[in-house]
Design goal:
The chain has helices spanning 19-29, 86-95; strands spanning 11-16, 33-36, 41-49, 52-60, 76-80, 101-103, 110-116, 122-128. The protein has 130 residues and is an alpha/beta fold. The chain has 2 domains: 8-63, 2-Layer Sandwich (Signal recognition particle alu RNA binding heterodimer, srp9/1), CATH 3.30.720; 75-130, 2,3-Dihydroxybiphenyl 1,2-Dioxygenase, domain 1. The strands form 2 sheets. A 4-stranded mixed beta sheet has the order 1-4-3-2. Strands 5-8-7-6 form a 4-stranded mixed beta sheet, with helices on one face. Strand 6 and strand 7 form a beta hairpin. The mean pLDDT is 92.
Length: 130
């Protein structure tokens, strides 16, 4: 298939064991806006294009669902912040008991840190290098 003209990433969908813990992480700590929750919870990550926002969707698993096991399909997801906000995000994560791991992006000049969400998904916070 050539010429598909993909314009962006519209959504990432994660199965979660504890929806409230995931909302506390993604909505309350990272500041993602809830767009709706007709079952799964849709969170705005970015403005997207042409009326289609970039979204993270949290799908609650049934109570008693088996824990996730390795290897996981999702390696990690990355959320971009403005360079001026990177240090504040780092401080907020530490204030909430997280111990962010550092790293260097192999392709993009950036500042990065890594943490795990309540279900063990690795989340990268990335900002363009100053």
């Amino acid at each position: 298939m050539s010429g598909a003209n993909i314009r962006g990433l519209a959504e990432i969908v994660l199965n979660v064991h504890d929806l409230q813990a995931s909302l506390a992480f993604y909505r309350d700590l990272l500041g993602l806006e809830v767009l709706g929750s007709p079952g799964p919870v849709f969170l705005r990550v970015g403005p997207g294009q042409a009326g289609i926002p970039q979204m993270l969707v949290l799908v609650p698993l049934p109570q008693g669902a088996a824990p996730f096991s390795a290897p996981r399909t999702l390696h990690h997801l990355a959320l971009e912040v403005a360079p001026a906000d990177f240090d504040a995000v780092l401080q907020a994560l530490r204030a909430h008991g997280f111990n962010p791991r550092g790293g260097a992006h192999p392709v993009v000049a950036s500042r990065t840190l890594y943490i795990d969400d309540p279900d063990g998904n690795e989340v990268e916070i990335i900002a363009a290098a100053n």
